[in-house]
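Hey, I was hoping to borrow your eyes for a little while. No rush at all, and the record is pasted right below.
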Amino acid sequence: MNSNKTHCLENQNIYKKLQINHTRNKQQDHTKLLDEAAASFCYESCKDEYWNPEEFSLLYGTPLWEQASPTQRIILNQLYWVAYYSQIISAEIATIYFNQTSAAGLYAQEDFRLVCDTLDLESSQERAHINAFRIVANQVEIALFGKRVFSYTMRGPFTETMVFADTNIWKRRWKKLQLQAFGLLSSDNTFLACQYFTVRGVRTLNGKLVQHKLSNYYQKHPNQETAPIPAKISYYHFMDESFHFNSSTIISHDVIHCLKPPTSFEKLVANLGIRGCQQDHYHFSVAINGIFWYDPALYSAVYQILRSPVFNMSDAEAKDMMRQCFTQETEGLHRSYKTHTEAMESYKVYLEKLDYLWENNRQMSIMAANSIPKYLEIQKQAFANFLRS
């Protein structure tokens, strides 16, 4: 951080914030508990119970949920867990890489060690999270379907972060180039290194809103010792991520003000990063409330689930059920749109004090442009294409 004497007192306050957050994260580190939980996970032992609050189930509030048997509803609840944390894996792989490039961008500053030690601890925790999520997802999908549906083989940090996105080969290549370029820039630019945590904070903020509710399921369980292991993992993960969100906020809101004002180029890159986040979070999913996936990209996965022994639908039955779930207004759609709106409003509050942002980023104009009528219009057209293909 800048050693300018005019900022001395402010820097001491910031240093204390960072120190408290880092110390408490070390003291409450859930890595050992996560590793133990993952190592002891056996799908057979908890396959007959909910892992999340009921409303956090795959396609909750749609005709599929309404017509599902009690056993099928439990599986839909578990599949939400698998799908949700498969997305988190993708985000955390990228986080591990950009934690390190951003730490490199802070090397030239005084007192950089505490920030870098914080990021080292967080990256280690992310690896434990990824391992736990993968163990559970792999067992569940193999047991139910004999193959992957929402999960995937390990990927690099330059892959499209959204697992089910509105993308194609050219968009993926362009996204990869953007991520590689930002990694290079942030590793040699202190402002952009700090500004990465603005993007990380925004992305973590949406997760924090949902994961708090997921973690409550374990906290309110009548017997935490016998609670399903995936619910424990949700809780342990949320506790770690709370400290990660704190460090994102301190670095992007406090540390950044110890630096000289950003240049026009730095402002441009920073704003493009926030704009990219808006684009990633433009969509909302009736299938997975809280993950901003592009539902047409999910059609194939949902079709496989409906045709599997879990639901045992015919081709015609599966397609008709998908039509009802994706192209019609449902309670599930309104719930997902509400989550999208809540996330957008929380992003605005998080960003309001950053004076280098463009107005359309400050107002989240791209995200705000989406709506339920637009969602339904996209689904009707995309579903017609799905039937033809």
